[in-house]
Amino acid sequence: MSGGRLRAHNLAISLDGFGTGADQRLESPFGHAGTRLMEWFFPTATFQGLTGTRERQAVDPATEPDDAYARRAWDGIGAEIMGANKFGPPGWQDDPEWRGWWGDEPPFHTPVIVMTHRELPSLEVGETTFHFRSGSPEEVLAEARDLAGGLDVRLGGGPSSTRSFLAAGLVDLLHVAQVPILLGRGERLWDGLEGLEQGYRIESETTPSGVTHIVFTRD
Amino acid sequence: MSGGRLRAHNLAISLDGFGTGADQRLESPFGHAGTRLMEWFFPTATFQGLTGTRERQAVDPATEPDDAYARRAWDGIGAEIMGANKFGPPGWQDDPEWRGWWGDEPPFHTPVIVMTHRELPSLEVGETTFHFRSGSPEEVLAEARDLAGGLDVRLGGGPSSTRSFLAAGLVDLLHVAQVPILLGRGERLWDGLEGLEQGYRIESETTPSGVTHIVFTRD
To answer: Domain Bacterial bifunctional deaminase-reductase C-terminal: where (chains A, B) (predicted)?
Structure first.
């Protein structure tokens, strides 16, 4: 294999399979889902940015089982691929001031490829460089692997871009956090993926937060 | 409360939410899903009909965590409600010889109400009497409660009839067994149930078989 693995982590979905709600807007990136898909993630040491062992001890120990999943997303990653809707609200391509949701220091610290139909100039924000590409999943992954310098590539979501890489058979690890709510509408993760389980090992675990972590892996 | 609780147990769904596959036929009651949604259930002591403690010991102990869920479906039940597709393949209403999938001794041993648009004469098979009704979920439940004589009523599936009782707010306990396969097509359980989690406690547990048991309860 010429490059590293393609890994998706911390992709939260509702019990009815929606990875984001309907009506995504600037003030509500997850649409009518609000923050409900990510409530399990916010109190974790990883989200709080507490990386040292001593700092971790300040966190509610009940969040540790979730954090054990959350923190793997940052291990050995050299580049990220994300969908257009993760980078900004509908229409961000027409706003020359838009630099992502994350302020002056985005949490990626690696090259990031944003999949969008418009080719735009690359953008450096803090330690992160965003590249904008309209290629196929295969083409984008090839470039991301070059950028990752031998490390793995993170597939950062959202649900529709993740689904296109799953459908193309390109994903080596998929970690889904299934949250026990029913959103009823939005963007589904699993559509059109009949038989996806073939060729993967699947492990599931429910944590005290009520979230079921489901991990697909292949060698 | 004039009658007992309405409880649904052992309703198996795929990770993408299908409670049965597409193309249900006489020779394949679950359609293209085959038996894959029920593989966790078949080796349990409950399915094997082994009810005594001594008999249970002959069963693979790895199936015990699943059986702990499976066997609750038979506790304190005085009547069952089922959808038309659980009673027979499409068109069974036109076959005067059709007496259900279960042979001479169906496993219910209580009155069963089959929801169908045709009013047909009641049918006695072994210790089970089937009644055929076209009423609303509320009407059917009222009759089932009378038949149950103070015990609980089991909502026996399939997914679309279960969904109609959930949408009407009539279900007191829902046990879903989520199987880690993707069916891609068929009958979805969760459609149109946005916000269902409100008013329920939800507990989830993954067993060694890989199934995640999800239980909604309310008082």
So the answer is: 11-194
